Fold this protein.
Amino acid sequence: MVTRSPEERLRLCEFRFERLPDARCQAKVVLERKDGTRYEGQADGMASQAGELRCAAEATSRSLQRVVGDRLAFELLGVKAVKAFDASVVIVSLSSREQGPPTRLVGSCLVDEDLPKGAALAVLNATNRLLGNTIFMR
């Protein structure tokens, strides 16, 4: 069994989220590899709880797509915040396709206040193992 150190994982090095006056929102996510290479993704959405979560998750997915290039394809299937055990949890569902049928990925993040950032971190949670096996171990 091959083990990886945590330093090989992508790191969320920048997260910006803005609610705009026209009932829209924008998210920017920058991920960084251990060697300092950065990958940026941006998305726009509706300024509602569901729209904001989707916007942040989509920006993260786009950033990840820049990491993997054409080796993998990610599709955000859904994102939702739920209350569980007196805390908020953001859960995301993604589809990933390398070759053959798509793989379903699920990730989550326990959140205190910043639900959009929790959505970004949940996407990373969902994809870390897959990325480690696909990108960092080859």
Observations:
- Residues 9-136 form a domain with the Double Stranded RNA Binding Domain fold (CATH 3.30.160.270).
